[in-house]
């Protein structure tokens, strides 16, 4: 989506107003086909309980589902991919339930993990208390149509980002 596209705002439930924004992006070319795509930018509200709030957001996404492909991205304030057994940090039961519901109910999978299977999760949050812990709370989730056109997914961690945010950006490229 490098060119300008017309947007139509998608309504969001009041409890997420100011934390989530949705838009239907019109005329997106993906895989040689032009179509509309529903895109949501998410920051799960603080303070928690974060897992409960993400589950509430999944309920809202399920009710808002349309025939358009869907991309949901942002800061979920919980780990947004399955950790490998070899990683020091482990997924909570709630995080696993969130990922299962995203997949089973909405068909959404984490784009970074799709492109980097069986790799330890990179750090997306350099939390102020300990900047070395590999928190992975930011992600881009894509549905099956978008996933089949996913060319690249990366976490940018060069020094140019550290002055701008305590989060490393996650990017996805579609063809």
Cα(first) to Cα(last) distance is 10 Å
Structural category is alpha+beta
Helix content: 10-25%
CATH C-level category: Alpha Beta
Question: What is the helix/strand order?
Answer: EEEHEHEHEHEHE
CATH fold category name? Deoxyribonuclease I, Chain A
Please work out how many helical segments DSSP would assign: 5
Into how many domains do the coordinates divide? Answer: 1
Can you identify the CATH superfamily?
A: Endonuclease/exonuclease/phosphatase
Round the Cα radius of gyration to an integer and report it. Answer: 16 Å
Shape from CA axes? globular
Low-confidence stretches: none
Report on this model:
The mean pLDDT is 92. The strands form two sheets. Strands 1-2-3-4-6-5 form a six-stranded mixed β-sheet. Helix 1 packs parallel to helix 2. The protein has 175 residues and is an alpha+beta fold. It has a single domain, classed as Deoxyribonuclease I, Chain A. It contains five helices and eight strands, in the order βββαβαβαβαβαβ. 29% of the residues are buried. Strand 2 and strand 3 form a beta hairpin.
């Amino acid at each position: 989506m490098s060119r300008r596209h017309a947007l139509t705002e998608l309504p969001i439930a009041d409890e997420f107003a100011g934390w989530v924004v949705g838009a239907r992006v019109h005329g997106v070319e993906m895989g040689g086909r032009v179509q509309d795509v529903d895109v949501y930018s998410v920051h799960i509200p603080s303070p928690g309980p974060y897992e409960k709030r993400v589950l509430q957001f999944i309920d809202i996404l399920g009710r808002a589902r349309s025939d358009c492909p869907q991309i949901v991205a942002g800061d979920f304030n919980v780990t947004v991919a399955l950790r490998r057994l070899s990683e020091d940090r482990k997924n909570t039961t709630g995080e696993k339930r969130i990922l299962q519901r995203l997949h089973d109910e909405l068909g959404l999978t984490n784009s970074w993990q799709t492109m980097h299977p069986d790799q330890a999760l990179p750090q997306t949050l350099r939390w102020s208390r300990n900047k070395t812990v590999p928190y992975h709370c930011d992600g881009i989730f894509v549905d099956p149509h978008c996933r089949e056109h996913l060319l690249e997914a990366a976490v940018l961690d060069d020094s140019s980002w550290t002055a701008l945010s305590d989060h490393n950006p996650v990017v996805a490229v579609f063809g």
